Amino acid sequence: MEFLGVRVVRGPDWEWNDQDGGEGSVGTVFQIGSDTKSPITEPIVLVQWDCGIKANYRAGMDGKYDLRILDTANGGERHLFTPCDGCQREYIIGSRWHCKTCPTYDLCTQCYMTDCHDNRHTFERIDRSQGKG
Predict the structure, then answer these.
(1) Can you tell me whether residue 133 is helix, strand or coil?
(2) What digits encode the pLDDT tens for the residues 25-63?
(3) In this structure, are strands 78-79 and 44-49 parallel, antiparallel, or unpaired?
């Protein structure tokens, strides 16, 4: 997946106070990896927050994830044969978040954003019913 231009919000390991403009603020990934002047080679991304601040964030560095991808899927997409394992809805509407560690575990966006499953697990976002992540 190409991550440039992806909209993001605070993730499970956020520890940067209100550097993003405050809880619920949204930013855009504008660079993958560190700038060429930095000695950091770990997985990081640079984000331009809507409030005007630019900063880099961990995207796997030391096992930490400062960001989450904001759901930008078609809100009307229905995953008719996939219930949400978090809220127990009969089927998921919008993005389906599939746990790569637990092969039969899926969440709706609301449950994914509230950390109702182990946030150390890797998830893939599936935007189309029966689509690939």
Answers:
(1) coil
(2) 989 888 887 655 555 556 889 999 988 999 999 988 888
(3) unpaired
Whole-number CA gyration radius for the chain: 15
Q: Which residues pair with 98 in a beta bridge?
A: 106, 124
Residue 19 CA to residue 53 CA, distance in Å, equals 7
Token couple for 53: 């601040």
3-state secondary structure of 123: strand
Alpha carbon 114 to its chain's center: 12
- What are the DSSP calls for 10-68, one per residue? E-TT--STTTTSSTT--EEEEEES--TT----SSEEEEEETTS-EEEEEBSGGG-B-EE
Model pLDDT, residue 113: 80
Judged by phi (left if over 0) then psi (alpha if -120 to 50, else beta), residue 122 lies in: beta
String of DSSP letters for 67-111: EEEPP-S-TT-EETT---TTT--SSEES-EEEESSSTT-EEEHHH
Q: What are 47's strand-pairing partners?
A: 29, 55
pTM here is 0.58
Q: Band of the pLDDT at 15, cuts 50, 70, 90?
A: very high
